[in-house]
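User: I've been trying to design a sequence by hand for this structure and keep getting stuck. Would you show me what you'd pick, starting by listing the structure so we're on the same page?

Assistant: Good idea, let's start from the same input. This is the structure you sent:
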């Protein structure tokens, strides 16, 4: 019934709805339409036309107004120079040619079509319209689109064609929101659409409009509308809207409890636990919501700790959860420990125990430490048993899932060899057997499997080398963070960095430190220690003889052994090997004796080598990693280095070609085994002395078994079968020919395959990768399609849930490898990261210094569980656990972790927990100075709601505030508007003056920016009416701009009309975001972000506008902003110069203090009399702002000795008297 409904009925509904002024009547009309014409409960064909902007079943038409205009001209068969064609092309412009419909393309097109179409309806149904629109969306070229438009024109009248055009443009302009339409369709429709973004699914699931639908949660693979942030005008408003409880708790727990402990220690009431030879004090550590106390094992300490905790409860009002608290003792009897725990109301902590997954008090070599990892492996594989996975799927699963499981332990302990053998056995068994319980033949040696892909391997990680690369990170962090507590503890207990490189593996050391020493004291050329280099700063950390700080690979001890033996400073750092003479470093090396004559040349060469080294007093020594361009230690580069140690395998050109082919993983795996000659052919099975049977040798094709010597050929069916497969999207002919070409080139044999072989070997499910360039959701999944194929897939779904498959290659591998779970939904942003400058790059293209960067700031789904009902804090904790950040490619944005954890000293943080409004204000200022977009404030206890803008998230941007940057500019051109402003100038091109000679008026004006918002309709009409007689149409490229305007003629700058003379123009006072941008569109060197009109300056003459030189001085003197005061920028010594003609009117200043707390500025008011001296006045703030300030000024004129004038709210607790006149 729905699909047979005539289009004329739907168009009548649209026309009536557009003309109606009552929202209730509009909703009732939609409800009646659905009741009357959708009796078969097939709502989607009609609803997709009612909400064309939400329909994603149909692709993009690729037709905006300009392209649609030319397509309609060709569909109608009229000349491009005809009046009707010009009306379509110039639909925005008003005047006699376009008429009153200017600015509304559908109305202009309807008037043109009215002369060529009949008035009677063509009888087109909703079904036929949807079919034609599907053809229009799927058309591959312009000719096909024109053919569909011609068909539509033939089967409709002008009124129907008008609405079809509006459907194509996806803007019906009905005056009713999608929320109202959803509500009339079904009360649960909007909620379901918010979590699926699938209009067809909504219509199918809610076929019964009288039955309520259980609220659906989000799920992997379905787009979801984002949670939205509410605008706020300033930091004070944002802080008032936030929940003050979370920062209060944070302050109490972190500062209050730490302060109590600090006080107890300062008064010698509590004895800290002292570590190592340097007696480093440790007393309190906090991680997340855990607090750990350390102290000497004494009765006094137990009593003081009890008192501290009791004081904390009394002061804060919070109660400690004693049921989850534990007390453990080392060096005391079990009875003493039990009594101490009972006194504290704690449970007794048994040693050994585990904290954050790390075993404490037990040997890392113990099988019990690693047994949970083995169980996780086996549980992971148990899910895939009895499932038919291709080898390509098994490779992907091993790389993305299995290797990532033990990473937290691999980064802390050296993995025992027996554990390595067990894990490798599991991986190898799974790779070659897919989890089927039977004897598996390992066709390729595991060492070969672990080789990089370009060297003939599968790129599966070697656990031992990977383990060493992870452990090496500890040494790197140790030397670069020597002032942190954990580094000071290691220095005191073990000797720090020097002991790590040269210490002896004595028996009293912990297993963990012994493992680190083993990793760093390896002597081969590819060891970690041999690839570290020092960059000389002040020379405090670098040992002169024994560290590598020269350009070569040798230490001075190895290069000059004789001189090393003669030196009395063999272990001294560089800073003790000389001194500064004024600003020049002078070496002072002490020798045991004088040199012989034959040693003079050696000493001269030695001194010449070190004389070119520059020592800097103020800079620190930096340890760099040689094998990474950035100089930073990365696990990947270290792993590759260790993997290459002793490896003589060179790059395999065949493998390199295979892995670069754009083919499915199962096809790559098949080709890899083919080139390794490890397919289960008769010859290979015979060579392995396996019994030859049909059950072991896979039957390929319909004639025989796969063999390098004999394959049955059905050449006549080969090409037709390939094309038959191609139509099913299983295999492309070019792909197969490329594989076969590689086979012939590198195997030296001619292979002929039957068509059935290709279908058996290469049937696969296509992987889709969808990306955006703004905010989006990342859906990651490892799932099964039918019984044939398993593969990880990643969707990037933007906030408007549009498919962007063109970014498919950019980030898939990064996300799959570093998201440590099978299924999840991440909320975040996709950016372009400039690796050379480290800011976010605002450009569309990529070059060698720019790369895609995914920043995840929330997680909505994890495993099989939705997380949107958990708090933001809980979601952040889960996010940190399942996403492994990759610097510059995949980052997580959470407070005190993720991208914040590796920012350089002095760089602003990306996210933090604010405790007061001052911190919010300070952070906002930093974002402005860093030229960022703004800040978002989130309630840490908030839950995630799709399409919610209730204020749980708040956004503060510079363009939302009044920044005081009102600039006087001259209107030099105009742009026609659309919609209700169609046919009239709705925006202005404004310019700045070239600074004139003294006592003269400006003669040249430079295009500056485009502005249209800020004025009411009446104010805008008044300006346009005043300038309309002086507007001249700009017919580009036939005519040039007026000679007194300096422009770029950029397409975005080019106006529709010019003001024919600056003397006839009007000055506007405009304001904007305080940050300026370097302009490529306009002639001025700088332009404004989000400009808006503050007021029209009829009181100023045309020549009193701001000159461009003054504006440039303003920008340079205020750090790239237009801020005249020092509210958001650094203080300036002097104000920027301005021409006398550019005097300003009253200036609006932004204040971060609420207005009722601001004292009146009376610095310019002269005192009159003393009748109010020594009195305090409270002026109630219930008056208009202007009169309030004026009243304050009048009071001050009569009081020269007054203490202050307060501005208070009307309900302030002041006694006052109202005096009558």
């Amino acid at each position: 019934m729905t699909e047979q409904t005539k289009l004329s009925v739907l168009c009548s509904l649209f026309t009536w709805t557009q003309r109606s002024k009552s929202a209730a009547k509009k909703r009732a009309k939609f409800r009646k339409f659905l009741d009357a014409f959708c009796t078969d409960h097939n709502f989607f064909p009609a609803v997709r036309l009612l909400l064309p902007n939400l329909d994603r079943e149909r692709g993009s038409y690729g037709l905006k107004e300009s392209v649609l205009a030319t397509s309609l001209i060709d569909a109608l068969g009229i000349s491009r120079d005809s009046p009707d064609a010009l009306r379509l092309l110039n639909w925005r412009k008003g005047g006699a040619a376009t008429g009153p419909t200017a600015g509304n393309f559908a109305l202009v097109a309807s008037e043109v079509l009215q002369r060529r179409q009949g008035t009677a309806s063509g009888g087109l149904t909703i079904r036929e319209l949807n079919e034609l629109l599907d053809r229009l969306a799927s058309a591959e070229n312009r000719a096909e689109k024109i053919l569909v438009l011609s068909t539509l024109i033939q089967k409709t009248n002008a009124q129907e064609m008008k609405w079809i055009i509006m459907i194509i443009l996806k803007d019906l302009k009905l005056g009713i929101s999608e929320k109202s339409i959803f509500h009339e369709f079904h009360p649960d429709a909007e909620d379901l659409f918010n979590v699926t973004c699938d209009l067809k699914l909504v219509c199918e699931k809610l076929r019964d409009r009288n039955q309520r639908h259980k609220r659906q949660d989000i799920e992997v693979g379905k787009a979801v509308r984002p949670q939205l942030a509410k605008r706020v005008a300033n930091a004070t408003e944002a802080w008032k809207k936030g929940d003050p409880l979370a920062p209060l708790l944070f302050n109490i727990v972190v500062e209050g409890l730490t302060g109590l402990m600090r006080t107890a220690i300062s008064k010698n009431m509590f004895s800290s636990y002292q570590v190592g030879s340097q007696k480093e004090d440790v007393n309190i550590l906090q991680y997340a919501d855990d607090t750990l106390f350390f102290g000497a094992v004494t009765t006094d300490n137990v009593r003081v700790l009890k008192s501290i905790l009791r004081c904390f409860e009394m002061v804060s009002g919070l109660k400690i959860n004693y049921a989850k608290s534990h007390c453990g003792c080392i060096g005391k009897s079990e009875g003493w420990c039990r009594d101490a725990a009972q006194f504290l109301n704690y449970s007794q902590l048994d040693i050994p125990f585990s904290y954050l997954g790390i075993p404490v008090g037990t040997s890392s070599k113990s099988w019990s430490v690693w047994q949970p990892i083995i169980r996780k492996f086996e549980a992971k594989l148990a899910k895939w048993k009895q499932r038919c996975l291709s080898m390509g799927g098994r490779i992907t699963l091993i790389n993305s899932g299995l290797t990532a499981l033990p990473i937290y332990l691999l980064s802390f302990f050296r993995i025992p060899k027996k554990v390595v053998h067990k894990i490798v056995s599991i991986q190898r068994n799974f790779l070659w057997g897919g989890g089927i319980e039977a004897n598996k033949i390992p066709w390729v040696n595991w060492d070969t499997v672990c080789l990089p892909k370009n060297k003939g391997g599968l790129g599966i990680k070697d656990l031992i080398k990977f383990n060493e690369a992870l452990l090496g990170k500890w040494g790197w962090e140790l030397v670069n963070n020597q002032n942190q507590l954990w580094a000071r503890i290691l220095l005191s207990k073990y000797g720090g960095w020097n002991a790590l490189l040269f210490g002896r593996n004595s028996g009293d050391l912990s297993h963990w430190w012994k493992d680190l020493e083993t990793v760093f004291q390896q002597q081969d050329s590819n060891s970690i220690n041999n690839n570290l280099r020092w960059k000389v700063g002040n020379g405090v950390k670098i040992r002169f003889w024994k560290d590598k700080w020269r350009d070569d690979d040798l230490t001075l001890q190895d290069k000059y052994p004789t001189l090393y033996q003669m030196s009395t400073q063999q272990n001294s750092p560089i800073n003790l090997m000389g001194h500064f003479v004024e600003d020049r470093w002078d070496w002072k090396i002490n020798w045991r004796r004088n040199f012989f004559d034959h040693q003079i040349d050696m000493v001269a060469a030695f001194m010449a080598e070190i004389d070119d080294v520059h020592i800097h007093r103020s800079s620190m020594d930096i340890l760099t990693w040689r094998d990474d361009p950035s100089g930073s230690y990365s696990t990947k580069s270290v792993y590759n280095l260790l993997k290459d140690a002793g490896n003589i395998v060179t790059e395999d050109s065949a493998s390199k070609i295979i892995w670069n082919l754009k083919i499915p993983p199962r096809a790559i795996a098949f080709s890899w085994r083919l080139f390794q000659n490890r397919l289960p052919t008769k010859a290979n099975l015979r060579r392995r002395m396996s019994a030859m049977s049909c059950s072991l040798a896979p039957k390929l094709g319909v004639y025989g078994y796969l063999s390098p010597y004999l394959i049955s050929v059905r050449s006549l069916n080969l090409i037709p079968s390939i094309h038959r497969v191609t139509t099913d999207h299983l295999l492309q002919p070019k792909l197969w020919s490329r594989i076969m070409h590689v086979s012939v080139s590198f195997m030296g044999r001619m292979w002929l395959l039957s068509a059935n072989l290709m279908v058996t070997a290469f049937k696969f499910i296509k992987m889709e990768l969808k990306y955006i360039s703004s905010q989006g959701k990342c859906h990651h999944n490892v799932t099964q399609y039918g019984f044939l194929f398993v593969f990880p897939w990643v969707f990037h779904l933007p906030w408007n849930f549009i498919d962007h498959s063109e970014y498919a290659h950019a980030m898939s591998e990064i996300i799959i490898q570093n998201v440590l779970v099978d299924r999840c939904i991440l909320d975040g942003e996709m950016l372009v990261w400039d690796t050379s400058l480290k800011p976010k790059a605002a450009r569309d293209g990529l070059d060698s210094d720019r790369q895609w960067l995914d920043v995840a700031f929330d997680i909505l789904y994890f495993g099989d569980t939705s997380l949107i009902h958990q708090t933001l804090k809980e979601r952040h904790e889960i996010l940190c656990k399942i996403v492994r950040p990759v610097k510059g490619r995949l980052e997580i944005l959470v407070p005190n972790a993720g991208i914040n954890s590796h920012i350089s000293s002095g760089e602003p943080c990306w996210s933090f927990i604010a405790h007061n409004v001052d911190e919010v204000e300070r952070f906002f200022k930093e974002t402005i100075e860093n030229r960022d977009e703004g800040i978002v404030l989130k309630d840490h206890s908030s839950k995630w709601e799709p399409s919610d803008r209730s204020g749980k998230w708040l956004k503060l941007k510079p363009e939302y505030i009044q920044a005081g940057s009102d600039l006087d500019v001259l209107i030099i051109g105009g742009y026609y508007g659309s919609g209700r402003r169609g046919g009239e100038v709705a925006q202005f091109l404004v310019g700045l003056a070239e600074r004139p000679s003294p006592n003269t008026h400006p003669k040249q004006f430079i295009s500056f920016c485009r502005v249209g918002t800020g004025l009411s309709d009446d104010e805008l009409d008044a300006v346009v009416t005043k300038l309309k007689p002086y507007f001249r149409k700009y017919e580009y490229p036939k005519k040039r701009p007026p000679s007194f305007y300096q422009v770029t003629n950029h397409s975005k700058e080019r106006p529709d009309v010019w003001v024919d003379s600056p003397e006839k123009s009007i000055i506007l006072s405009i304001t904007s975001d305080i940050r300026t941008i370097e302009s490529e569109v306009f002639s001025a060197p700088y332009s404004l972000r989000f400009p808006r009109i503050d007021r029209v300056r009829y009181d100023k003459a045309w020549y009193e506008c701001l000159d461009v030189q003054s504006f440039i001085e303003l920008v340079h003197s205020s750090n790239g902003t237009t801020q005249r005061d020092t509210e958001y920028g650094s203080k300036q010594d002097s104000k920027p110069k301005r021409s006398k003609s550019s005097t300003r009117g009253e200036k609006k200043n932004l204040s971060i203090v609420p207005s009722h707390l601001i004292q009146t500025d009376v610095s310019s008011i002269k005192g009159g009399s003393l009748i109010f001296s020594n009195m305090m006045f409270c002026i109630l703030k219930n008056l208009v702002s202007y009169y309030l300030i004026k009243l304050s000024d009048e009071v001050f004129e009569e009081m020269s000795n007054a203490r202050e004038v307060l501005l208070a709210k009307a309900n302030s607790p002041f006694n006052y008297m109202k005096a009558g006149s």
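That's my pick for every position. To get oriented when you compare it with your attempt: Residues 245-266 form the longest helix (22 residues). Residues 752 and 1093 are 74 Å apart (CA to CA).
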